[in-house]
Amino acid sequence: MSVDVASPTEPLENRTGRERKLPTSSDTPYRSILIGIAIAVAAILALFFVSIVKASIPGWRIVGWHFFYGSDWNFSAGQYGALPLILGTFVTTGFALVFAVPIGIGSALAITYLIPRRFRLVISSLVELLAVVPSIIYGTWGFLVIGPWLGNHLQPWLASLTGGRWPFNGIAQSGSNLLLGVIVLGVMILPTMAAISRDVFMAVPNELIEGGLSVGATRSQVLLKVVLPSSRTGLLGAAVLATGRALGETIAMVFLLGGVNAAHPWPFNPFNTGATLASEIAANFGNYSGTQGFGILSCLALVLMVIVGAVNLLARAITSRSRRKLLGA
């Protein structure tokens, strides 16, 4: 009895069974499906953007360029100078990032490299849990807990530092002001920053860390000179995601900021009330009538979309520049 066994030197196309050559066109259906999904996503995004632009046209016809330089925002009274809202968006997001980014990166470094291994899973799980807590819970906590403490203790202490002069002059508005909104917004985006930064640090090759330790570097030197530079691109991505959440935060900011003060519209005193583009959309979405009100709110939405898009483009440009420098080195 003889067994037909294919010779190792026999051409692949002449072999039988599982060694038969797969057709080169086997991935064509998958490529077609992925291309179709990409086209569908792009079409949905384009349709969304075009619909916002179209809805905002009546608003632009009413307010014109006054929208960008006017300071007289009062939606119910038909005053649509939105510069205080634009500045309020930048101020609250900027100071929240100043608070959340360094603390988030430091927390992620501690969780990844400094905390004993038996505690890492528990702390990481708590951080990820805080990242998905609804913003209304943070807002309620800030309004009921942080607000009274700020008015009774922090505001008098800050005012004493400057002798009652700017920027800590005046009296904190009861329950709502810019400082309260910035603090709660920073706490709100902190878990997101920490969770993503931890994942970035865990992706750093262990060989780099061991190489730094093997040449006599201390742990702090390895973290500062090896881990952080290697994670720069990922940390930038984490900061962009945190920025996106801060820019788009709505409900919590509505009652934490309190709305634009007609007597003091500019967001330059932390004890005054204020508003952001997103919070003003949420506050007035149920109060508009006709295409005029909806058009004005669509103008706010369009400006907010442009700001978010510009932040993403800037981050992408910085990332590309860093990658080119790394490849050039």
Q: Which class do the helix and strand fractions yield?
A: mainly alpha
β-strand number = 0
Low-confidence stretches: none
As a percent range, the share of strand residues is under 5%
Largest sheet: none
Order of helix and strand elements from N to C terminus: HHHHHHHHHHHH
Q: What is the 3D form?
A: globular
Give the name of the CATH superfamily of the domain at 85-291. Answer: MetI-like
Summed up, the helix count is 12
Mean pLDDT metric = 85
Over all CA atoms, what is the radius of gyration?
Answer: 27 Å
Q: Fraction of residues in helices?
A: over 70%
Task: Report, as a whole number of angstroms, the end-to-end distance.
Answer: 66 Å
Given this structure, which CATH class of the domain at 85-291 is correct? Mainly Alpha
What is the CATH fold-level name of the domain at 85-291? Answer: MetI-like fold
Second-tier CATH architecture of the domain at 85-291: Orthogonal Bundle
